[in-house]
């Protein structure tokens, strides 16, 4: 079992930055997961944004490449998403997710666990 709790959302102007954090609690501390961030804009489907493997390999959705950075702190059991140069289309609810299977990238990720989400609003 994995419990995920996001924090760090908020409102920011176009071009601004935000950092989202996800606190990870695992019933088996040494189990490995593909960790990722998803987002859902109003009226749209949830989409994968970024993922990071237990060994640090990262992958990104095309629209955020060069602007977002995913990282993890295994000692602190947390995953972060640094978001720079934010655009109005980045607005949405952002979710932390964990996949216990064999997926290795955000494109193939199929989460077993989800956080409650944190809202990000980018205004012009």
Describe the structure.
The protein has strands spanning 2-7, 10-13, 18-26, 34-40, 47-52, 58-60, 68-73, 78-83, 92-99, 113-114, 118-123. It is an all-beta fold and 124 residues long. Strands 2, 4, 5, 6, 9, 10 and 11 form a seven-stranded mixed sheet that branches. A four-stranded antiparallel sheet has the order 1-3-8-7, with no helix packed on it. A hairpin with a 4-residue loop joins strand 7 (68-73) and strand 8 (78-83). It is globular. The termini are far apart. The model has no long low-confidence stretch (mean pLDDT 95).
Question: Sheet bearing the most strands, described?
Answer: 7 strands, mixed
Low-confidence stretches: none
* Percent of sequence in beta strands: over 45%
Number of strands: 11
Quote the distance from N terminus to C terminus. Answer: 40 Å
* Shape verdict: globular
Structural class: mainly beta
Helical coverage, percent range: under 10%
Number of helices: 0
Radius of gyration, Cα only, in angstroms?
A: 13 Å
Briefly, what is this?
Helix content is 0%, strand content 51%. The protein has strands at 2-7, 10-13, 18-26, 34-40, 47-52, 58-60, 68-73, 78-83, 92-99, 113-114, 118-123.
Topology:
Blueprint: E1 2-7, E2 10-13, E3 18-26, E4 34-40, E5 47-52, E6 58-60, E7 68-73, E8 78-83, E9 92-99, E10 113-114, E11 118-123
């Amino acid at each position: 079992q994995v419990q995920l709790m996001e924090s760090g959302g908020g409102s920011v102007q176009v071009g601004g930055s935000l950092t989202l954090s996800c606190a990870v609690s695992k019933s088996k501390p040494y189990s490995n997961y593909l960790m990722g961030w998803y987002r859902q804009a109003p009226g749209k489907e949830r989409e994968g944004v970024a993922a990071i493997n237990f060994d640090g390999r990262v992958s990104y959705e095309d629209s955020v490449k060069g602007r977002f950075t995913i990282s993890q702190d295994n000692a602190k059991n947390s995953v972060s998403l640094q978001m720079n140069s934010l655009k109005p289309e980045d607005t949405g609810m952002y979710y932390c997710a964990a996949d216990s299977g064999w997926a290795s990238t955000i494109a193939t990720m199929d989460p077993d666990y989800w956080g409650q989400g944190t809202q990000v609003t980018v205004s012009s």
